[in-house]
Design goal:
Elements lengths: L7 E6 L14 H16 L3 E6 L7 H6 L4 H26 L3 E5 L8 E2 L2 H9 L3 E5 L9 H11 L4 E6 L19 E5 H6 L7 H9 L4 E5 L5 H7 L5 E4 L4 E2 L5
Parallel strand pairs: 1-2, 1-6, 2-5, 3-4, 3-5, 6-8, 7-9
Antiparallel strand pairs: 7-10, 8-9
């Protein structure tokens, strides 16, 4: 596991993390709080990339269950991530940081197309880079996009921002009071136990490329800033042996 503070990080921010107390869409105070923490981390000299989800507006897998063509539903989901990305971009700019959004699906009126070398140059210049549109392919989640882009831009760690969950547990802590939190979790255990870290394609991609993962609560005080500094108390996923929090046993 790479130790913080990191030089370059990838944040995966789910669409649900932007909802706040609402049931749908974008909660401006929540997005502004996320943006302020990203700006604070950027001010420390950390190069920050973000992949943002669109589940706050649309879920392709769910739409396909009601008869919509899955590929079409997934393309609609990619457009939803662009809406989330633009909202986050605006908030980061208002917080005082320089930011660029790149999309896997060309929408040049509102964002740059994804170009790896350009993205890396933005990061080197201290700009926050938001990646929208997933991978640009149907049947691929934004988790997979986050893992892929993190590897492409040579990020040191993938930081998974969960909503109201401070790590990975052996059961859903919101439903099972006795659920135990993993302090450390190996890639293989995460896969074999089918734990809700990220989808299996994304997790396998991280494992094959030895990309460390930290799962943390985006709503915790300074959650994003602490994750970027390497001081988060979330779950670390990597090659190390699995450890369950003894205090929770």
């Amino acid at each position: 596991m790479a130790k913080g503070p990191y030089k370059r990080v990838m944040f995966k921010v789910s669409g649900e993390a932007l909802v706040g107390e609402r049931a749908f869409g974008i909660d401006p105070p929540t997005v502004n709080g996320i943006a302020e923490q990203i700006k604070a981390a950027s001010d420390l000299g950390i190069e920050i990339a973000v992949v943002v989800g669109g589940g706050n507006f649309w879920r392709g897998a769910e739409a396909s269950q009601f008869g919509m063509d899955r590929a079409t539903a997934d393309y609609a989901g990619m457009l939803a991530t662009v809406i989330s990305a633009l909202a986050l971009q605006d908030a980061i700019e208002k917080a005082g940081a320089d930011v660029r959004t790149q999309t896997a699906i060309p929408i040049q009126s509102v964002a740059e197309p994804y170009i790896r070398r350009r993205a890396m140059r933005h990061l080197e210049k201290g700009r926050v880079v938001i990646f929208a549109g997933g991978t640009g392919n149907p049947f691929m989640t934004t988790d997979t996009a986050a893992a892929l882009r993190a590897i492409e831009i040579e990020a040191e760690v993938l930081l998974i921002a969960k909503n109201r969950v401070d790590g990975v547990y052996d059961a859903d802590p919101r439903k099972v009071p006795t659920a135990r939190k993993f302090t450390r979790l190996s890639y293989m255990d995460a896969l074999s136990r089918r734990l809700e870290v990220m989808d299996s394609t994304a997790l396998t991609l991280c494992m094959d490329n030895l990309l460390p993962i930290i799962v943390f609560d985006v709503g915790a005080p300074n959650g994003i800033l602490n994750a970027a500094r390497g001081t988060s108390d979330g779950t670390q996923v990597g090659e190390d042996e699995t450890v369950i929090d003894a205090a929770a046993v």
